[in-house]
Amino acid sequence: MTRQKILTASKRAEFEKLVRITRNIDEKDHLRVVLAYEEGHDVCDIADILKSAT
């Protein structure tokens, strides 16, 4: 089963930009989770991504 894309190209670009510029760690983590999920990562992969970011 393939996962449907949840973000438009422009929204994805906006999220990627916000990840780079935001200073709010919680917001940055939330954006990273949404982007990782959209790329097809599962929950364990996303947890590893968040652990490595700190």
Describe, in short, the structure shown:
With 54 residues, the chain is mainly α. It has helices spanning 9-21, 25-38, 43-53.
Domain unit count? 1
Major sheet characteristics: none
- Spans of 5+ residues with little confidence (pLDDT < 50)? none
Number of helix segments?
A: 3
- What is the N-to-C succession of helices and strands? HHH
Shape designation: flat
Quickly give the structural class: mainly alpha
Fraction of residues in β-strands: under 5%
Task: Tell how many strands the DSSP assignment holds.
Answer: 0
- What does the radius of gyration come to? 11 Å
- In round numbers, the mean pLDDT is 89
Task: Give the termini distance in whole angstroms.
Answer: 32 Å
What does this structure look like?
The protein is mainly alpha-helical and 54 residues long. The chain has one domain. The chain is built from three helices and no strands. It has helices at residues 9-21, 25-38, 43-53. α1 packs antiparallel against α2 (25-38) and α2 (25-38) runs antiparallel to α3 (43-53). The longest helix is centred in the middle third of the chain and has 14 residues, at 25-38. It starts with 8 loop residues before the first helix and ends with a helix. The relative contact order is 0.16.
List the helices and strands and how they pair.
Blueprint: H1 9-21, H2 25-38, H3 43-53
Helix pairs in contact: 1-2, 2-3
Annotation keywords:
54 residues; mainly alpha; 3 helices; flat
